[in-house]
Design brief:
The complex is a heterodimer of chains A (266) and B (273). Chain A is built from twelve helices and no strands. In chain A, helix 3 packs parallel to helix 7. The relative contact order of chain A is 0.13. The model of chain A has no long low-confidence stretch (mean pLDDT 90). Chain B has 273 residues and is an alpha/beta fold. Chain B has one domain: Rossmann fold (3-Layer(aba) Sandwich). In chain B, the strands form two sheets. Chain B has a six-stranded mixed sheet, sandwiched between helices. The longest helix of chain B is centred in the C-terminal third of the chain and has 17 residues. The radius of gyration of chain B is 19 Å and the shape is globular. The termini of chain B are far apart. The chains are: A mainly alpha (266), B alpha/beta (273).
């Protein structure tokens, strides 16, 4: 590697650490907000898991249903937060007023967005672990045959696609400062509906089942073990969504610079 | 090589007017063929009313806008084609000190410096030193930015800009809205930067006294056109005026206090309506 390339790589890695460091500082400063959000997520997941306790079926079926709801809730809590953090990359900076300083800094956009993505993964892992332990302790579900290592591997692959899709929606507030963030929420809601978080996608209308095929959450949730049928679509979605996400973001940034929308007040 | 070289720079914004089907688009020029150069180590002040194009000029040089014509170079680098290279050379202080409000001054400076390739080990001794130099109180370094006065926030903004040792410093109304004491402290620090750093400064300001004290040359930007750019005394002589304010009036036909709509903000407001 040439001296120039090594210097550039070093610069980018330091910039990458800056993105992660900034988000860690923010979590520390907003810690009580994070605690409240965590409690809300636990309560929300418990509400869904308790539905299984109210169904008139055998004990074994009830446990299986509660486990499905728990797994769905935890996986969505993890993937949803990745999507949310990456999606709010621009909206958050605009709200804080730092957008101009971040976008005029000599950090490449892929490094900036991947920094957000990696932080989101770390944050999501901590939240998902707390959620899982809290709900299992509260409701007393037995998951003796759970393949945790396979689930973690599947989620790791799915995370890449979620970062890529998050990049595409992150650009929306740059294009439309007023409506962009709301559109991001709509995209997240749509993915929740079609991915079969709490039910099998086969119950969905045909056209929704078709959309579910391009949602990475579908394969992450369906996966039992590391089945190739679930792994390969996730790899394809990851390989496609990240470059596509970067392209969409770059195009949106260029549009914002052309039309004077890259500013704190929109 | 010039520090800044701007040639026939043009920027337009699309303005939408009317409602529903009657909505019409028209292009509004924010900068009209602006041409000037700045020597290395020089401080140039640009005077103009709100909406004259000052912020547009700064935002173009800061790589936050794309141009519609002409060219701009910073130390020989094309602002629009070599953005990353230009970003390494430039930093900016704007009228609003923009920070993550819950984070402290030290935290804001620490992460921002990493964006410019400075490691934690490098910034650890530099941050307290630069905050001391801008006159920021030592016991407030770990307080949230939201608990600091505007004057203190602006000092942190200056510290953030200088921490990365930029060779071109863009100051967009850095003292607007500050109390007289904070204003004087910020101005004194800008003077110190001029003396001690190898920095070129482009200062956009409303403050005529500030321009006269700090700048080697003063330009008047009016309705997107740069009417003149010369040393303050030459400017006064050219218009036969005793003060810069009179010179501004003679050049533009308007008093300096007259307000015009903010260029891009105006466009946005019309779009929203």
């Amino acid at each position: 590697m040439s001296h120039g390339a090594a210097a550039t790589l070093r610069h980018e890695l330091i910039g990458f650490s800056g993105v992660v460091q900034r988000n860690v500082y923010l979590v520390k400063r907003y810690i009580w907000w994070d605690v409240a959000f965590m409690l809300w997520t636990i309560a929300n997941t418990l509400t869904i898991v308790f539905i299984a306790r109210g169904v008139d079926v055998s004990k074994a079926q009830e446990n299986a249903l509660a486990t499905k709801f728990l797994v769905g809730g935890v996986i969505w809590a993890y993937l949803g937060i990745i999507f949310e953090i990456v999606t709010e990359t621009v909206a958050w900076e605009r709200w804080e007023g730092t957008i101009e300083y971040t976008f005029m800094a000599p950090v490449s956009r892929p490094i900036h967005l991947f920094g957000m993505g990696i932080f989101a993964v770390l944050y999501g892992i901590v939240r998902a672990a707390i959620l899982f332990v809290a709900v299992v302790a509260f409701i007393g579900i037995h998951v003796p045959h759970a393949n945790y290592s396979a689930a973690v591997a599947l989620l790791a692959i799915a995370s890449i696609s979620f970062i890529g899709i998050g990049m595409m929606t992150a650009v929306l507030p740059l294009i439309s400062p007023e409506k962009g963030t709301q559109l991001g929420f709509i995209a997240q809601g749509l993915m929740l509906v079609v991915s079969g978080v709490y039910y099998d996608v086969s119950v969905l209308p045909g056209w929704m089942q078709w959309i579910s095929k391009i949602s990475p959450a579908t394969y992450a949730l369906r996966g039992s073990g590391l089945a190739w049928a679930d792994v390969w679509p996730l790899i394809v979605l990851g390989v496609v969504s990240v470059p596509l996400g970067l392209f969409v973001f770059r195009t949106g940034e260029r549009y914002a610079k052309k039309h004077g929308k890259l500013k704190r007040s929109g | 090589m010039f520090a800044v070289e701007v040639h026939n720079l043009r920027k337009e914004f699309v303005r939408k007017q009317g409602r529903g089907l009657r909505k019409k688009r028209r292009r509004v020029a924010a900068l009209k063929d602006v041409t000037f150069t700045i020597e290395r180590g020089e401080c140039v002040a640009v005077l103009g009313q709100n909406g004259s194009g000052k912020s547009t000029l700064v935002r173009l040089l800061a790589t936050l806008l794309l141009h519609d014509g002409g060219a701009a170079r910073v130390f020989g680098r094309d602002v629009f084609r070599e953005q990353r290279a230009v970003q390494r050379l430039v930093n900016r202080v704007s009228v609003e000190a923009s920070f993550f409000k819950k984070m402290s001054a030290t935290e804001n400076l620490s992460y921002a410096a990493r964006f410019y390739g400075m490691t934690g080990a490098e910034t650890k001794p530099k941050i307290p030193e630069i905050l001391r130099r801008v006159g920021f109180p030592e016991d407030r370094r770990h307080d949230s930015m939201e608990h600091l006065s505007r004057g203190m926030q602006q000092k942190v903004a200056l510290a953030r800009a200088l921490l990365t040792a930029p060779v071109l410093l863009l100051l967009d109304e850095p003292t607007t809205g500050l109390d007289p004491r904070s204003k004087l402290e910020v101005q004194q620090f800008i003077e110190e930067v001029r003396r001690t750093h190898d920095a070129t400064i482009l200062l956009c300001t409303h403050d005529l006294v500030e321009a006269e004290i700090l700048a080697d040359r003063v330009g008047i930007l009016d309705d997107g056109e740069l009417l003149c750019l010369e040393p303050p005394d030459d400017l006064k002589r050219r218009y036969g005026s005793a003060t810069l304010e009179e010179a501004f009036f003679a050049a533009t036909g308007r008093s300096f206090e007259e307000e015009r709509d903010e260029d891009e903000d105006e466009v946005r407001e019309v779009v929203r309506s």
